Amino acid sequence: MEKIMEILARYGVLQEGHFLLSSGLHSDKYLQCAQILQYPEQAGKLGGEVAKKFSEEKIDLVVGPALGGVVLAHEVARSLGCRGIFTERKDGIMQLRRGFSIEHGSRVLIVEDVVTTGKSALEVCEVVEKEGGEIAGIGSIVDRSPKDFEFPVPFRSIIRVEVETYTPGQCPLCDRGVPLVKPGSRESKN
User: Fold this and answer.
1) Contact 142, 161 (CB under 8 A)
2) Collapsing DSSP states into helix, strand and coil, what is residue 126?
3) Distance from C-alpha of 76 to C-alpha of 43, rounded to nearest angstrom
4) How many domains is the chain partitioned into structurally?
5) How far lies 52's CA from each of 15, 94, 139, 171, in Å?
6) What is the per-residue DSSP string for 41-84?
7) Cβ–Cβ < 8 Å for 165, 25
8) Of 59, 73, 83, 159, which one has the greatest count of Cβ atoms within 10 A?
9) CATH code, domain carrying 68
């Protein structure tokens, strides 16, 4: 775990400030995995590490939500020797586009760079199930979800990072007037 944290720090993944997360929560830290995934060699290594977490499973397809899961889905799929696709939101609804399809009965691994609330991964689960796929599990580079959070399917990450989050009305950073930055890819209602 320490080695992974060193690598993430070296590539500027862990950022500090006042962030509006895609969940609508605020935090003084943000994990921007795009900073490391832009380097193919590093993306391949991380994809390989996520794939190892599911090496005992039969996986036919890897699916990641756009944007955070696109590169990772590709690299995990490469490591597992299967196809990798992504979902994206259109009019606020997660869906398959671009001619992507899921064969009925396919064993699907859903991957995401960082899991905070699990909302995007759960939306992808709905898409997969609607298409007739069977969810083998959910994988991520970073798990920063609450300790009591559980997915309805196996969830495995390379590393767990605890980062405090605040609701907008109870945020000490807001109280101190620290400027709020929105780095995420999902539109927030807050």
Assistant:
1) yes
2) helix
3) 9
4) 1
5) 27, 27, 10, 38
6) HHHHHHHHHHHHTTTTS--SEEEEETTTTHHHHHHHHHHHTSEE
7) yes
8) 73
9) 3.40.50.2020
> CA 151 → CA 137, 138, 143, 147, distances in Å?
9, 8, 12, 12
Q: Tell me whether residue 161 is in a domain.
A: yes
* DSSP element (H, E) containing 176: none
- Whether the predicted model's global pTM rises above the 0.90 cut: no
CA 104 to chain centre: 24
Residue bearing tokens 């830290």: 29
Tell me, yes or no, whether 184 lies in a domain: no
DSSP SS3 for 114: strand
Residue 153: give the domain boundaries.
2-175
In the structure encoding, which two tokens stand for residue 3, read together? Answer: 């080695």
Give the residue carrying structure tokens 């759960």.
122
